[in-house]
């Protein structure tokens, strides 16, 4: 609402004319009030595919990386026991592998958890917004009834 419109509405109200609550909104079909699903849209299918891939990567990588770590540590132990310097280097690589693998596993878990949270939060936001707007509609309807509109 612009300043001129505000001043005009105040003048009309002072003269006893009825004014109504008006919400600024986009034209119907432009993603605003005319959109049946509102602006906050989360498609469960999209989230499910990404979340499923993250969970599958978490499970598979956890299993296979542990196998690689154990095999590398066994080989490193065998090489060290036979006096090869390569054994210590392989042991160092296996230790670093543990940290890197855990970082990737944490990231996969974070993605999966965040998507679940996002879906739930968007649903809650949409419900809150719908409740708030329906309350404004009820209030506006009450003003119309009182004024005989």
What this model shows, in words?
The structure is a single chain. This protein is mainly α and 149 residues long. It has a domain at 44-146. Helix content is 75%, strand content 0%. The chain is built from three helices and no strands. It has helices at residues 3-14, 44-81, 85-146. The longest helix is centred in the C-terminal third of the chain and has 62 residues, at 85-146. The protein is rod-shaped and about 100 Å long. This is AG1 protein. It comes from Streptomyces eurythermus.
Number of helices: 3
**Total strand segments:** 0
Helix content: over 70%
Q: How can the largest sheet be summarized?
A: none
**Rounded to an integer, what's the Rg over CA atoms?**
31 Å
The dominant shape is rod-shaped
Average pLDDT confidence is: 78
Q: Structural class given helices, strands, pairing?
A: mainly alpha
What fraction strand?
A: under 5%
Which residue ranges are poorly predicted, with pLDDT under 50 across at least 5 consecutive positions? none
Protein name: AG1 protein
Organism: Streptomyces eurythermus
Which short descriptors sum up this protein?
single chain, 149 residues, mainly alpha, 3 helices, 75% helix, rod-shaped
């Amino acid at each position: 609402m612009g300043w001129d419109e505000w001043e005009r509405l105040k003048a009309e109200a002072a003269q006893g004319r009825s004014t109504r609550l008006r919400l600024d909104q986009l034209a119907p079909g432009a993603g605003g009030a005319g959109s049946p699903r509102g602006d906050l849209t989360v498609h469960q299918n999209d989230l499910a595919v990404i979340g499923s891939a993250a969970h599958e990567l978490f499970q598979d990588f956890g299993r296979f990386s542990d196998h690689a770590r154990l095999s590398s540590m066994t080989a490193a132990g065998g090489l060290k026991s036979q006096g090869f310097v390569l054994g210590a280097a392989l042991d160092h690589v296996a230790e670093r592998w543990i940290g890197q693998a855990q970082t990737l596993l944490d990231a996969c878990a974070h993605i999966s958890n965040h998507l679940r949270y996002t879906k739930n939060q968007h649903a809650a936001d949409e419900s809150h917004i719908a409740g708030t707007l329906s309350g404004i509609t009820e209030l506006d309807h009450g003003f119309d009834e009182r004024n005989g509109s």
